[in-house]
Amino acid sequence: MTGSEPAAAPAPLPAAPGPRRRHPEDTKERLLDAAERLFAERGFEGASLRAVTHAAGTSVSAAHYHFGSKEALLVATIRRRAEPVVRARAARLDEIERRAGAGPLPLEEVLDAFLRPIFEERARPERSDDFRRIAARLFSDPPRVVASLKREVFGSTAERFLDALARALPEKPRMLIALDLQFLVGVMVHVTSGHLRDVPAPRGWPRLEGLSDDAVLGRMIEFVAAGLRAPRRSLR
Q1: How many C-beta neighbours within 10 Å does residue 160 have?
Q2: Domain 79-199+207-229, CATH number (from 1.10.357.10, 3.40.47.10, 3.20.20.70, 3.65.10.10)
Q3: What pTM was computed for the model?
């Protein structure tokens, strides 16, 4: 290049990167994760929507966009964890009914189909203690919040297993079976929410921490089956 030639213009600098845009589904999952954690820690009434969105690193308007309300966010949080259990229960019961044909259903197998999926879901390594605690809150948070939620998420499953237990115990009145199914749910919540091992026991009681899930599940089935088969008494 001679001195009379103009200097070449410098190459333009690359544009500074703008803020990374998050995919809407990422925001939705972060909201669900934060809701699961805060609802478990504080309960539905104690966890404000603003606290959930702050923990998720997003805004209240984003929560309203994805869910519409705090109640709907709670439903979505429970549904995300409950749906694998509901599907597994249905698949196990389908198989039991297929093998039984038109005959009565084996009681212990029906109970296993109801209980085992929640033990399996709880044991998955990616599951945290948050869902264990939030599931327990379904039975301690205000009824106005959780009653309709339980019907929406678990209603069809409860009806189907009530029908299955009626087939397993054809001589037993349906009202008594419905009552006993509530007892079953109470035992299930107590065990799967961790209270079997963390409730203080009286001095001298055997320690239960070392029991395997298989051992606990097997004994639950034996215990509940005995109650379901207990002699009928009038509810009047």
Answers
A1: 16
A2: 1.10.357.10
A3: 0.79
